Amino acid sequence: MAGLFLQNNVYLIKGILPKGITAGFTDRNISGRDIPRAVETIKAAGGIFFNECLYLNQVHGSDIVFVGRQTVVQEYLNASADGIVLEKPAVAGIIRTADCIPLFFAGRSSSLAGILHIGWKPAEQGIIDKLSEVLKTRGVEDFSDFVFILGPGLRKECFEVKSDFLKIEPFLPFVHLRPQKSAAQYSGHTEFSVEKGRLFFDLAGFIKVKLMQNNANPQNILDLGICSFCSNEKVFSFRKEKTEDRTVSFIIKKTAPPDNNNTA
Ligand SMILES: [Zn+2]
Fold it and tell me: Which domains does the chain have, with CATH numbers?
């Protein structure tokens, strides 16, 4: 059975990613403000095993940390970057969000997995094309072998933007004009208005098209469809709450199973 399973304050994503990959995100009882507690909670949920964890100083850019089998994870703790690619097993790659979309990914045969922090700025700066470049350095030609999952974040009905989004050309197909409504109908959505309407950005739609431009199979792109604003009882939303709390998303490659080890 595939889907989301809430276990001890962690939503585990099951039955979607390739075998040997564990991923999920924390609920509102856990915040990215307290990383040690979040890490302990993730470990406890479903008995997930990992030796190390890597979290970043997320700067809304497009840099990605590659964690090779020999990488000393400690050296990259709090590195200024917005993505993690894991070759090394038993490392929890962690991204913190409150409206931005965490993008989980894992290869079926390449043994690489990871997670990106995608708000509009990393999207504009090409973090998905950057991922493609990082994978190419590991001999992965494109995204065709990969499964992608879009985690919780602001969806198009709630992602109101200013008219300057109309100047970002790659975003144009994903910016929608909607009729002006009363302030009451947009309670909480008191952002900006353009003449005769309001603009909304479909970040998830942009991400999916960028993935497909890099040859991802549409059948291997799963959108959990959880809007952080609308599903604020599950996850944090900066736009709704103006909070410093963050939802903690993670992905882990399990260590090789014992039958791969002839010393047993
Ligand atoms: Zn929403």
Answer: 8-154+217-259 (3.60.140.10)
